[in-house]
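Note to self: keep these together.
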Amino acid sequence: MRNLVLATVLACMLTGCGKNKEGELAEVVNVADAGLEPQLLKGFHPVEQGWRWSMSQFSVALKPPKHADKGAVLLLKYSLPDAVLEKQKEVSLTASINGIPLPAEKCTKGGLQEMRREVPGDIFKGKTAITADFTIAPFLAPSDTDKRELGVIVHTVGLLKK
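Structure:
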């Protein structure tokens, strides 16, 4: 699977998909931006009113920020509807950058949230693109009323300069 993700990132870099006006991958991806959609590697449902539901696992290709050798901050802006918490009580989000795990986050309240995780600079050494992978547990399994697997509502994923 990792080879497929890396091949997709490489193909995007070579063909220009998912690139900003300067012709590069974006550091921050608004998941509703059709021009950046190729950076959404897996685990996203179609756009709904400026955001997307994720599946239980999702991945995004990102450009490291300038001077990333000094480290960066991984940002995930997401929402957790109260209806999800009524069923799940607590949701755990885990993230990794190029397979290197970052500390998990537990969410026990609804509404707009931000997950911020420090990313060590050595992860970016020699890289022009990275893959941010996320896992949500528990998630909402497909049901009679919604046939989709639902994780969280994602607004933005990005790497910020430290």
